[in-house]
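Justification of computing resources. Each target in the renewal requires a structure prediction run like the one illustrated here; the chain below, 397 residues long, is used simply to show the kind of job we budget for.
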Amino acid sequence: MEKRSKHLMFLVLYIAAMTVSLSQQKIPPIMDIVANSLNITIAQASWLMSAFTLAGIVLAIPGAAIMNKIGPKNLLLTLMASLFIGNILGAFANTFVLMLISRVIEGIAFAMIIMVGLVMVNTWYSGSIAGTMVGVFNTFGAVGPFIAMNIAIPLVGKFGLKSLWLLIAGLSALSFILVLMIIDLPNSQSENEKESQETASVAEAIKNGKMWILALMQGCVTFVLFTYITSYPRIFVDFYKLEPVKANFYASLNGLFGIPFCIIGGAIVDKTGKPAALSLISFLVLSIVGYTTTLLGPTTFIFHILASAIFPGFIMTAVFTMAPSIAKSPAYIGYTIAFVNLVYYIASFICTPVVLSTATSLGWPVAKNIVALVAIVGAILTVIFMRIAPGQQKSEH
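Resulting structure tokens:
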């Protein structure tokens, strides 16, 4: 495979993944507008974020088998089709229930984009740049929020609420065409790979304690990251009394800062070979970030947003590079990533309703303590992982 061709295919994959992230994050910057249009409360509107991750919880484990059956390229095409259908339905949804259904359909793409993306990246890249390229791929989750926070209000204000959904539907269709025309991957496994997959079982994979610790680490960082991605607009409007446009601008900086530091995190992992140590330091910093959420001012907003972007990016890149190394055998790598993703989706599902509901009823000074506590739990889990897997903390490519 020529160097240029794999970079071009990576670019197409990245555009598709970024479109998924944009679709996921279109709700937070216009949550007030959506709530008013559907005649629902902010707390109810927060479930539109969680509904997007519901498919991930259901499909995380069978996703690996589906990909093995139809191939990564065909799976990616299916994901883009589901994203298109969900956004078209959402554009014309006039009830809360219908909007929830549309978000679940959109979420099918979110359910498996990380898995299929990691498989493709590890097919195209290996050796000393593998961790860096995983980091580059992980930036799709930062690019989506950055774009959404900056275009949502101007676009909706000028063209109406459904325009944002139709825009993403168009990007989904474009991604489908690009994947179909440019990405070239085998759609079936070799006989040896099939035999190896048949020897692996979900029941046996579940017994891997290292996998569960790593998955829970992923859950903790996901809870913290998505709390800030989805709640920063509410924190800046409700607690710090900023105008919505200014609040969305500040919130968008989380994505902007996250873009380079996901890549830097991958480079650090490649250079040091110590992803677990990087995760531990990052969790400790995030516990401070959580505690100081309500102690900010105009001069410290940027530093808080910077930290909430940098350190989750470090941890998530580290986790994804460690996951293959703790699998019992190559046949179990798919299951390992699937279980890590399962906890990722569960944390994405619960974080926004839990934090926003707490903030609504008890205030942000109480809600921020939940975030700090989750980060501390992540640090404890990382120490446990370092003890039970002392020789398996490096990625194996």
